[in-house]
Amino acid sequence: MLRITTLVAVLSALLALTACTSSDGGADPSTTDPSARGCGECTEELAAVRADVEALPDVRELATLETYSDSPTNGAGVQVELRTRSTGDASVMDQVAEIIWKSRLAPVDEVFVTVEDASGELVRGGGSPYDFTEHSRQHDTYVEQWGPRPVTE
């Protein structure tokens, strides 16, 4: 009986240790370094982005503004769906991406913006998805147009 209890205790300790390491064998930064998590739940940052997007002159309704964390196949990102008052000029996509770029939301690797115009048609074009990763082809263009991304702690 003592052996089973000891074995269970050892296995529990091993499980706890492996839960705190990443698949590459190193420590998971989200459990060891609070600043590696970006803005965490980003409640205040999302509220600020929501207010800025809703204030855009052509935005009639912001239907979706969600963040999602990174996965083995995709980076962390933001999904935006909105309806416009007009024919849905694709430039509204760039305006939304700029608001997110300048925000303190972090981490953000990609941004998807879907726009429905006043007649209910989906607007095609623009730069969606926006690749905010440091090594993307567009990164330098975003820095030139919108300035550097804010540093979050």
Compact summary:
The protein has five helices and four strands; from the N terminus they run αααββαββα.
Structure characterization notes:
This protein has 153 residues and is an alpha+beta fold. It folds into 2 domains: 1-33; 38-146, Alpha-Beta Plaits, CATH 3.30.70. It is built from 5 helices and 4 strands; from the N terminus they run αααββαββα. It has helices spanning 2-19, 29-32, 43-54, 91-102, 139-146, and strands at residues 59-68, 77-84, 110-116, 130-131. Strands 1-2-3-4 form a 4-stranded mixed β-sheet, covered by helices on one side. Helix 4 (91-102) links the parallel strand 2 (77-84) and strand 3. The N and C termini lie far apart (49 Å). 19% of the residues are buried. The model is unreliable at 1-36 (pLDDT under 50).
